[in-house]
Amino acid sequence: MAEPPILSWEGLGLQQGGRWLFESLDLHVGPRDRLALIGRNGVGKTTLLRLISNRIEADRGTRKIKPGTRIVLLEQDPDFAGNATLMDFALKGDDAPQRHEVEAIAGQLGIDLDREAATASGGERRRAALARALAQAPNLLLLDEPTNHLDLSAIEWLEAWLSRHKGAFIVISHDRTFLKRLTRATLWLDRGSLRRKEVGFGGYEAWEEQVYAEEARAAEKLDARLKIEAHWLERGVTARRKRNQGRLEQLHKMRTQRAAMLNPQGAAKLALATDDESRSKTVINAEHVTKRYGDRTIIRDFTLRIQRGDRIGLVGANGAGKTTLLKLLTGELAPDEGEVTLAKTLKGVMIDQQRALMQPERTVRQILAEGGDWIDVRGHRKHVQGYLKEFLFDPAIVDMKVGVLSGGERSRLLLAREFAKASNLLVLDEPTNDLDLETLDLLQEVIADYEGTVLIVSHDRDFLDRTVTVTLGLDGSGTVDIVAGGYEDWEAKRMTLAAPAKKPHKAETAPPPPASPPSPKPAKLSYKDQRDYDLLPARIEQLEAEIARGEAALSDAELFTRNPARFEQVLKALDAARAEKATAEERWLALAELLEG
After folding, report:
1. 125 assigned to some structural domain
2. What is the pTM of this model?
3. For the segment 272-319, what is each residue's pLDDT rounded down to a tens digit?
4. What is the CATH number for 548?
């Protein structure tokens, strides 16, 4: 029997700007729910979290909360004003956590909370906010883009913490890998309504297409077009994903071709230097490049020939040297040893995280077309309103001021402006921050269709897997791993080199406890408990494999249309496997805690 909810909203309604943002929403959160909150930028996802946490009041509806329930909100952009240090921020307020709890989590996240808040980086602030939120031992944790500004090691740590968390959480994130690993149900906020499906993010896209297909059929029966947002009518979610699937197939071919040009150490084959055709395609040639800062070697003996059309991803922990390598490759920084040669015709565009530099008082038309009706898009003249539609905007926003747009919409507008510029080298620094999933799909399309070379710095693993042909992995030692493929290919190489380190997890949640736990003391466990402790890791691995197969089956966008009965069968089996896996993990962890005293 399902446990009663710890929080409920019935008939939730909120007005914004003279219109109903939400009206008659119902929401129920169970004590162990792991919920993905999905929806386009601007539909009110962040507002909904603020309503749930009681930061703002609703205009309608009844809110019920189980006595003693602690709700904690991790905001996307916490306010650090008035705090001298990060620790001051973490311990501020009546609901502040205990100092020792904050320090314990901060230590695991690798953040010095004595840092001045005013000069702390985005990553340091994000870690401090996480330490404050997690240390409060929430029964319901609300996470708004928690992976923004975090490096890969911190993201993996957070995944592991959330997989052990005994309370509930609702998460907004553009990080598909993060969502697939952690969530078991999905809340979909769409056109003022809230739908719930007992399927994690891995099954969301198939469910989404099922809903739109049913709406389309209903519209046909009524002999009328159902009013769906413009981008769905004009592009079609299924058609877009089919196109992206085709692009992924082409990407895999490009990776295979690139792999043939790399030797086992990852450096470009020197034989290519005599190939005139290949040389003519080279846009950046780095040979035995080394860069030091003081006594520390940031980049050591790095060699790579980047060709026209390459999509290069740079990954690694904060401080590992990604920005240094990027500056070396673009000629902004000179190496201490070796040489970097740039093609004379190279013309680059840099899209970084400085979205705040877009003047809020200017209109969209002024940003894109200097106040006119037409914009030059890489040599092609387009009407500004038509160009807006290509980036999933309602053309009616053309004369709106930038300041009224959401953070995600401003990011999308920046992309639209920068992609219009004539260039043959595109440099993207954390381009996925503040973007919704649909815009990420669009960005994937734009990068795939871009005729020049692309350099991408990102911690978004799924995005890298969908876009890059070569991954440059930095571990902070100065060595740069060069791998043909995306993040998963680099991670597989990393794990192989680090064997017998733990195997990367492929299922939707963080990895289960180790398969070979320390030998327990026989006196502390009964026969049944000991048997469960010994056998559960193997069963968890079996369930992970079942979940992976189910997710793979549901990734077929046409499964529901082709075989609805099979779709439901797979969905039910997937839900059952997830539920059993969650129970098995909780049981194993309880036994492990008992053994540890």
Report:
1. yes
2. 0.70
3. 333 333 445 899 999 999 999 988 999 999 999 999 999 999 998 888
4. 1.10.287.380
Q: Which residues contact 502 (CB under 8 A, 6 or more apart)?
A: 495, 511, 514
Instruction: For residue 596, name the pLDDT band (cuts at 50, 70, 90).
Output: low
Q: Does residue 60 lie in a domain region?
A: yes
Do 418 and 530 fall within a single domain?
A: no
CA distance 460 to 443: 13
Sole residue written with tokens 């790399």: 262
Task: Return the amino acid letter for 281.
Answer: K
Task: Give the number of domains in the chain.
Answer: 3
Greatest alpha-carbon span in the chain: 80
Average pLDDT, stretch 479-495?
Answer: 88
SS (H, E, C) 28-85: EECCCCEEEEECCCCCCHHHHHHHHCCCCCCCEEEEEECCCCCEEEECCCCCCCCCCE
| Pair (415, 530) in one structural domain | no
**Contact residues for 513 (Cβ-Cβ < 8 A; gap 6+):** 537, 540, 585, 588, 589, 592
CA distance 303 to 307: 13
**pLDDT of res. 578:** 80
496: Cβ–Cβ under 8 A, 6 or more apart, which residues? none
Distance between CA 129 and CA 106 in Å, rounded? 10
Q: Is residue 489 part of a domain?
A: no
Of 497 and 516, which is predicted with more confidence?
497
Amino acid in the structure at residue 172:
I
Q: Is the C-alpha dihedral spanning 411, 412, 413, 414 positive or negative?
A: positive
Residue of 388 and 243 predicted with greater confidence: 388
Contact predicate 140/167, CB 8 Å: yes
- The single residue listed with the structure tokens 């739109």 is 212
My answer on whether 419 and 527 are in the same domain is no
Domain boundary residue among 423, 456, 476?
Answer: 423
| Domain boundaries, position 204 | 7-208
Residue 506 placed within a domain: no
Question: 381 by DSSP, 3-state: which?
Answer: strand
